[in-house]
Prior knowledge:
Elements: E1 18-24, H1 28-39, E2 44-47, H2 76-87, E3 91-93, E4 97-103, E5 107-112, E6 116-124, E7 128-130, H3 136-140, E8 146-147, H4 150-153, E9 161-165, H5 169-180, E10 184-188, H6 198-206, E11 210-213, E12 216-223, E13 229-236, E14 242-246, E15 249-252, E16 256-258, E17 289-291, H7 303-335
Parallel strand pairs: 1-2, 1-6, 2-3, 6-17, 8-15, 9-10, 9-15, 10-11
Antiparallel strand pairs: 4-5, 5-6, 7-16, 12-13, 13-14
Helix pairs in contact: 1-2, 1-7, 5-6
Amino acid sequence: MTSVPETPDPDEREPYPSHDVIVIGGGPAAYTAMIYLAGEQLDAVCLEGFESGGQISRASKVLNYPGLPDSPAGVDIPDSMRRQAEGLGATFEFDEAHTIEAIHGDRFAVHGSMGSWAANALIVATGSRPVELGLESEKRLQNRGVAYCALCDGPFFTGKRVAVVGGGDASVEQAITLTNLGCKVVVIHRRDEFRAAQSGQSFLHNHPDVSTLTPYRVDEILATPEGIVGGIRVEHTETGEQHEETLDAVFVAIGHKPASDLVADLVDRTEAGHIQVRGRTGMTSCPGVFAAGDVIDPSYRQAVTAAASGCVAAIDAARWLGHRAIDNNLAAASTNR
């Protein structure tokens, strides 16, 4: 279990604004945590970063968020969560956390680009980002046919011809989702052999609506005159031969990177970098540090699951603070006898 080391002078006055909880992050997990912390009447501040909203903000429309049948724009969902938290009195700071240090032995100071804050507990909801191909055309066509989540964006391309780029289990999952939507799927992988499980490889090679291109790398994502995805140019990794495929969308499935480096020295993480939590709780290996959202989730990465884990982390943090207050009062009473 990771623990926070004590600082040498516990009596030194804190020079930072003090809170019960600091929430780090700016997506559905962080905003949901703030809603619940405000409901618990806790003094919490959210350092939401400079790109608030989370991954869902990339979606032009969201078809699968419960209770929102009118398919709002992705940015509207976290925005409404944030406004709900503000209506309950929650405090937000437009700043990005850079470092965390222990102060007074059992408290934390979070230092951002424009200020520092102190608290008894932290909730880390920094999310993850899909690994991109690194092409200029990919960035230009995001939300215009370039996507990273078949569950989220696949329904926009029902019955269309699409590509999935990747060779692992994630690419198989995306292909399965898309074929269930009636899509014709071309799976492009830069190696001769796929890394996916054998059952997944069998699906790719035997499904009538799936074809594979190996070993090819994506050279360019092609646009129509209307500025949406119209195809893809690939290059053989050995011969350099190029050819083009006509497509309606490109789903990139080459991995996600959890944004957990900020707490690398505080909490236990998986080999892939996800923060480890205890069972279905938000508790990490470090007392007082909780985590929620995609930064703990290697499997689902949905806005609704992130929001749910933000709720869990907030309730766990509130309970932990309550128990700690009781323990401190008992210790003080014992000392005064």
